[in-house]
Amino acid sequence: MANSKYEYVKAFEQPDLLLPNTWIVVRIDGRGFHKFSDKYAFEKPNDRRALDLMNAAAMKVMSELPDIFIAYGISDEYSFVFHKSCTLFERRSSKLVTTIVSTFTAYYVHLWSNFFPDLPLTAPLPSFDGRAVQYPSVQNLRDYMSWRQVDCHINNLYNTTFWALIQNGGMDAKTAEKELAGSLAADKNEILFSRFKINYNNEPEMYKKGSVVFRDYELVEPGTVELEDDESAKTVEEAALSKTQAEKDRKRRAKARITVQHVDMIKDEFWERRPWLLS
Ligand code: ATP
Ligand code: ATP
Ligand code: MG
Ligand code: MG
Ligand code: MG
Ligand code: MG
Ligand code: MG
Fold this sequence. Notes:
Layout: E1 23-30, H1 33-39, H2 48-64, E2 68-74, E3 77-82, H3 93-115, E4 128-135, H4 138-167, H5 173-180, H6 185-196, H7 205-209, E5 211-216, H8 236-255, E6 257-261, H9 268-272
Antiparallel strand pairs: 1-3, 1-4, 2-3, 2-5, 5-6
Helix pairs in contact: 2-3, 4-5, 4-6
């Protein structure tokens, strides 16, 4: 096709390729969900329907983008992780982020009425922002996941105590905030237990741990895992064999059931029992 005199504008587009061989995390977050949650009268501190809707939208994103191998959600945010070998959209950051954000938002709106049948969505409609961050090592990636899960725990303990002081203790928000200023985790547990007979340990796992979405197959028994990371020790035949094995694994992975679980990702056990996730 002949070039038009306008074509030169294409050169203003800047490349935004993410580095090869790094774990890519795309985190999205609801815009103004503090207000949004008021508008639809989300139960405080945790509206179960809203979290189930976030999880349902995330599962749809994962089934439409098989390159995502794990995702983690809390509150109005979700982190989607691409394997370091991913080549989707040539690893262009804006393509990856915008596709996830728009797919997630589309499903959030589409599935809304399944979770809030009596509350039709009205403008302004929910929207999400997104960003891509790259992590060069498994340790960095695991620390990222741990960071989000610790955040979930800290926020949930705070919010559970804050709302107990208001809902069961009759305080107003300002007084509750003052009461909790500078308090440690142990203090909050103590307030919950001594004043409201709430044992924080018995709160729902979904609220305490957040939601981990991943492709599941058979668990490996604890203690039987051998992590293989010495590629150089393999012969040519072994390498070829592991290549067909990798192809088989890829197909199995695409077919695997997507599940959402409220489990600890900070300890080694979660990853050791599911070696396919980081291999
Ligand atoms: P921003 O646009 O900067 O992200 P925001 O209002 O969305 O602002 P966040 O820090 O993202 O602020 O916090 C999201 C807020 O949405 C929470 O503080 C909480 O008030 C509310 N929220 C989200 N999910 C739920 C839920 N499942 N149940 C109750 N409240 C929720
Ligand atoms: P990619 O995911 O790479 O963008 P694509 O299939 O969306 O792939 P585009 O180059 O974006 O390819 O082209 C969009 C295509 O969608 C058009 O070539 C056309 O076939 C179709 N299309 C879009 N809008 C219309 C429309 N209003 N009427 C008919 N066809 C349309
Ligand atoms: Mg934000
Ligand atoms: Mg938000
Ligand atoms: Mg948020
Ligand atoms: Mg087009
Ligand atoms: Mg297109």
